[in-house]
Known about the structure:
With 264 residues, the chain is an all-alpha fold.
Amino acid sequence: MSKIDLEAVAALLDQEELRVKEFGRDTYADSFETFLEDNKELWDSFRRLFQEENNDEETEKAVADALVQRAQKMIEAQEKRVKKEQKQLNINLYVVSYVLPAIIECQGYQKKDSNACKMADAICQAWKVAFPKYAIQYADFASIQSGFKQKLCYVTTAVCKALHKPQNCPELIALKKYRDEYLLHQEGGEQVVREYYNIAPTIVKRIDKDSASEEKYQYLWEHYLKFCVAMIEAGQFEECREKYEEMVEELRKQYIITNRKENV
């Protein structure tokens, strides 16, 4: 029998809507602290479990299954496909930003061979099996909190500026939300974002030096970004990722690789 109250584990997902609303730069820290306090009894039971020498694999599976099964019921309860996908994204965001960091917090540190991380990994593996298009990865609270300090979407911001759109235009807001609430929580997503931020500032600087920079930004909007925004609105999140990566690869070849060859 599991040493964890599985009903309480499943019931954690009932807080999804509230916590997703509170997930923001200025509210996440307080919201996460409240989340820990509101579920203190459950986290205490996890702490006792993690103090043992090795995790019980049966308990890991039971905890993962409890979360997956409740998530499946919540998603299936939505009538329309778009609402199902939105519910899936919200649950993913909630699990990645609250549930998994809270589990890791129970042991006080993030180490891949720690019992807490083994539990988090078991949940991620079960999630990947149940929701193959929406796989997740775990992170601790500090990593997520630091993520709010990420810089803006360089290329998208430059395009919007060139097209005389305001800083808080709906297109930029949609793409930033897509990055923060979807892409960063997908398998390999964090690496994609990190690699993008390594080259994007250089790309924008080199486009700005071009006498035809406005035409280039117009091209990027017409051929890539407007389709990305439309895909986000339609719930086609993986298609948006493919389109955005296609744009970045074209820019990388034109402004990074070509430029390096010219400077050799």
